[in-house]
Amino acid sequence: MSHYCDLAPGHPFHGPYHDHEYGFPVANDEALFERLALEINQAGLSWLTVLKKRAAFREAFEGFAIDRVAGYGEAERARLLADASIIRNRLKVDAVIHNAKVLQALRDDHGSLRAWLDHHHPLPHAEWVRLFKHTFRFTGPEITGEFLMSTGYLPGAHRDGCPVQARILDAGPRWDRVRVS
Questions:
Q1: Mind telling me which Pfam families this protein's record contains (predicted)?
Q2: I need a labelling partner for 55 at 20 to 30 A (CA). Which of 37, 81, 88, 98 fits?
């Protein structure tokens, strides 16, 4: 079975993501929001498709500024659904807008999305899925797991022999601080 660590290095899109982002802790709420939005948009598609459209997503969603996206109404929704440079799926677009509003509430209650994640860490994968399904829109087991793995909350982004894994461990991912089942 091939692992992302075997396939990504040297690839023009997968390589930089694998080497510099995937599995590293993420502190910034806009970066966490972007990662969640990208994972949502990947559902049913290849990760390569999402990575190729990433710059367009950033532009379309105004840098994933949470307050701006949370304020989107019908005009912005229509603009997004007409934008051929991103994935034009109404459920996914609606989920990203809805989740921005949820992030505002989490920020009000916990200070940041990261603080909310830290508050609930550690949880086993199944508990994370229940929490995400209860909190966010369009977040099933795969999306939740990939989001948490990609942002350093769950292990498994890289195989142990991958040279990036050592850098991730140096960065102090949450999963390495307290082991979960």
A1: Adenine_glyco
A2: 98
Q: Which tokens hold the place of 145?
A: 């797991």
Question: What CATH code would you report for 28-177?
Answer: 1.10.340.30
Cα dist from 112 to 37, 105, 118, whole Å: 17, 9, 10
Of 48, 77, 46, 74, which Cα lies nearest the Cα of 61? Answer: 77
- As a whole number of angstroms, the distance between CA 78 and CA 135 comes to 25
Angle at 44 between CA 145 and CA 174, to 5 degrees: 15
d(CA 167, CA 148): 18
Tokens 């894994």, located at residue:
165
Q: 160, 181, 176, 149: which is closest to 47 by C-alpha?
A: 149
Structure tokens at 5: 């660590």
Distance from C-alpha of 82 to C-alpha of 80, rounded to nearest angstrom:
5
pLDDT digits (tens, 9 = 90+) for 22-77: 999 999 999 999 999 999 999 999 999 999 999 999 999 999 999 999 999 999 99
Q: For residue 88, give both structure tokens.
A: 């034009």
Q: Which amino acid is at 69?
A: V
